[in-house]
Design brief:
The protein contains 9 helices and 25 strands. It is of the alpha+beta class.
Length: about 500
């Protein structure tokens, strides 16, 4: 994500300007409670016994524990996010959106697998809206709203490994509530923008503001979107556009169009996106054949084309450095988001006020750093934003490697002048997207490269993506990869940067 501009001076050069990404209502239901571990006695059937028998074996009694999943996925930095007891495999989001009417209706189908024996209660992250129905495998289920969780009593306990489906119908208006991690925004999640547009910005905890989900990167899933919008508008999401269904009515029976998209690669919930507006589709291809497709406001076409002129070459350059592009397609969609762009997977949300190559490259780098390998904890943000920032610097100076050292010396000088020398790990929530996460992270990465050497650095990154791609990785796992690649201990290096402040 990029959120505002900062300038860094380098000896004789003014260095690049990087945009820094960058209590609920209780449902009236019968009082049925399934606690964290409620023992249920199940008696064996009585067997007829002959009167001639002198001894009768006692009836066996079997204890079955019906278990509740946890209401946190265990991120110490953001313990309110995520849930355990199950693993989501796939989301289908059917939604009708009208830029002129902020209320909307949606049906979300969640295909999941029980992760523990006798799962009897589970929870999803979900804020606001009125739930009109909730089915588990087609059967109505009891549910309640507790703080920011949707708590579901499963009609029958699930065995570990058992697949099940939850369908939630809901409607209403998104809550306008800020995130403690995004103090520069009044709210997070779905936005109704200027000029009859809608867009979604969910990093890090905004997905729960517009659809029920397991809202943490550690539970990735594949997605299908069926988005109905007023005739004349286009709906853009992640992945590949499968079909466009004309003459499908909106909820008020006015003419509409349904756009069906699928993304069949693992994706964190905060990266799921929808953008609605009047768009022109621009199609292309990278030199190696990667499908490039963009959705652009017609009045921004010229600026967009200039800012993305080198996208094909840039994606090939990143492939050479980091390995195969991890997804099926890539592109950008312009949105009227003031000063914010976001690395939504395969379809970057690009602010109409940030149409420049620097932003374009920064968000592309996130396809590897943040999207393909996501953070195990949100407190490790330096790896997402630091790498995206550093890769942008490398791209801009790809023909003059010595200039990279000058630029990074300027970054260090600027951080020192501004008194920015905080540990990179677990910044205060309101500083998650601070200068330190971007430039401090980039400087740490540059000095790690100097510490281990180019061969070990880039070899380590390829192993990192091969081993953790499609999932998440922790700082400790990243360090282990780099130690194996370089054959040296990096304890002191990582401790200095992550726990003490790296400029000392």
């Amino acid at each position: 994500m990029q959120v505002f501009q900062a300038k860094v001076k380098v000896v004789w050069l003014v260095v690049m300007v990087l945009f820094l990404a960058a209590c609920g209502e209780q449902v009236a239901t019968p009082e049925v409670t399934v606690g964290p571990a409620t023992a249920v006695s199940i008696s064996a059937p009585t067997v007829p016994v002959s009167v001639e028998e002198t001894a009768v074996a006692p009836v066996a009694e079997v204890e079955t524990e019906v278990v509740a999943g946890g209401r946190s996925l265990g991120d110490p930095y953001a313990p309110e996010l995520g849930n355990t007891g199950y693993d989501v495999k796939h989301y289908t989001i059917r939604i009708a959106l009208d830029p002129a009417v902020e209320a909307f209706s949606s049906t979300v189908t969640i295909e999941a697998e029980a992760a523990i024996e006798n799962l009897g209660e589970m929870s999803l992250d979900f804020i606001g809206f009125e739930i009109e129905s909730l089915l588990v495998d087609g059967v109505p289920a009891l549910f309640s709203r507790e703080e920011d969780k949707l708590v579901i009593q499963l009609p029958e306990p699930m065995a570990a490994g058992e697949l099940f489906t939850i369908e939630v119908d809901y409607a209403g208006t998104p809550d306008d509530r800020p995130s403690r991690y995004v103090p520069f925004a009044e709210s997070i999640g779905m936005f109704y923008g200027d000029k009859e547009t809608i867009y979604v910005l969910s990093e890090p905890d905004g997905a729960r503001f517009w659809f029920p989900n397991n809202d943490h990167p550690k539970d990735k899933a594949t997605y299908r979107f069926e988005v109905t919008v007023p005739a004349g508008l286009t709906a853009v999401t992640n992945g590949t556009l499968l079909t466009t269904l004309e003459d499908t009515p909106m909820p008020d029976d006015s003419p509409g169009t349904t756009f069906v998209w699928e993304h069949n690669y693992p994706m964190a919930s905060y990266l799921a996106t929808i953008a609605v507006g009047e768009y022109k589709r621009v199609e292309g291809e990278s030199p190696s054949g990667i499908v490039l497709r963009d959705y652009v406001f017609p009045d921004k076409r010229g600026e967009f084309v200039r800012s993305t002129a080198n996208v094909g070459d840039a994606i090939e350059w990143m492939i050479d450095l980091f390995g195969e592009y991890p997804f099926e397609e890539f592109g950008y969609v312009t949105v009227h988001a003031p000063g914010v762009s976001l690395e939504t997977q395969t379809m970057v949300l690009l602010s109409s006020g940030m149409l420049d190559e620097r932003t374009v490259t920064h968000e592309m780098a996130h396809m590897w750093f943040g999207d393909w390998v996501s953070l195990d904890s949100w407190g490790e943000m330096w790896r997402n934003e630091g790498f995206a920032t550093y890769v942008t610097i490398l791209w801009e100076n790809r023909d003059d490697p010595e200039e990279v050292d000058l630029v990074m010396a300027g970054v260090r000088s600027s951080l020192e002048d501004d008194g920015i020398d905080q540990p990179l790990l677990n910044p205060p929530p309101q500083r998650l997207f601070s200068t330190n996460s971007y430039f401090g992270g980039a400087l740490m990465i540059h000095e790690l490269r100097q510490e281990v050497g180019d061969e070990a650095f880039f070899a380590g990154l390829e192993v990192y993506f091969a081993e953790y791609g499609g999932g998440t990785a922790s700082d400790a796992q990243f360090q282990e990869i780099m130690e194996e690649a370089s054959g040296q201990s990096l304890d002191a290096f990582f401790e200095k940067w992550l726990l003490e402040g790296g400029l000392k």
